[in-house]
Amino acid sequence: MSERRSLYPALEPYASGRLDVGDGQSIYWETSGNPSGKPVVVLHGGPGGGTHPSLRQYFDPEAYRIVLLDQRGCGQSTPHVADGADLSVNTTDKLLGDIETLREHLRIDRWLVFGGSWGSTLALAYAETFPTRVTELVLRGIFLLRRSEIDWYYNGGAGNIFPDRWDEFLAPIPDEERGGDLVAAYHRLLHSDDESIAAGAAVAWSAWEASTSYLLPDPEKVDENSEIRFALAFARIENHYFVNGGFLDENQLLRDAPRISGIAGTIVQGRYDVVCPATSAWALHKAWPSSTLNIVDDAGHSALEPGIIHHLLEATDRYRLT
What we know:
Layout: E1 15-22, E2 25-33, E3 38-43, E4 64-69, H1 92-105, E5 111-116, H2 118-129, E6 134-140, H3 147-154, H4 163-170, H5 182-190, H6 195-212, H7 219-225, H8 228-243, H9 252-255, E7 264-270, H10 278-287, E8 291-296, H11 306-319
Parallel strand pairs: 3-4, 3-5, 5-6, 6-7, 7-8
Antiparallel strand pairs: 1-2, 2-4
């Protein structure tokens, strides 16, 4: 195999701010790279994960105007879920509206949409809703938010591969509730009036994802996800979306794939992705024939796996002149 690419050098934003999107919500945004370059919007994972400076580094800074944002309730957006933000106004349709509001605020006509994990879900929903606003899609770790995917990861399937970590995920749940829907059980714990119960459940939920996202373990990422403020937002927002089916019809993203038939795109998928198994990427590729699928044989879920980085950079470099 030829030498793999590495991330572009770290860079700082040249502009940033908070945008009032209604419902008492203000979202953080930033732009970096070339102010006159090709626009790209980066949709982070979770939902509730927040953006990260490394996400700027998947793009040639001379070619791209790189837009990052924190979705409602997390990161630097306000109010923060750890501070009691109202989750009833945090839905997929609301997030799609926020993206459009930001696009108009930044006076961008069309942009490349880049997202991984939940970011791939949101990117697909956005492109299927606003196809004329999307130049290309670059997606990683495909999550179609079907019930089978949620059950695989949160109701026992992935636990067969990580039994030690699965026991830690189960630990906050009373024995009598372990035979039912664990996403529902966690919903009760995460919204307990006892702050210590809610915090303990949030850390267990967030650590489960961090400990299963890499082909090789990354203890530092587990520690990072276990920080209380991050974990409360991450777990509560994710769980809120999952108990509500992502506010999507079952199989909606595949059903509506013909709406993006004219959009070029690249899918990058780890072969050993336990969080979002490759079957979803395969299903999407078949439903979206204009896409290119790259399955990375030595990668898990994380965007920081070496093979994932390589193929994402190859895709963004390919699209920078189109």
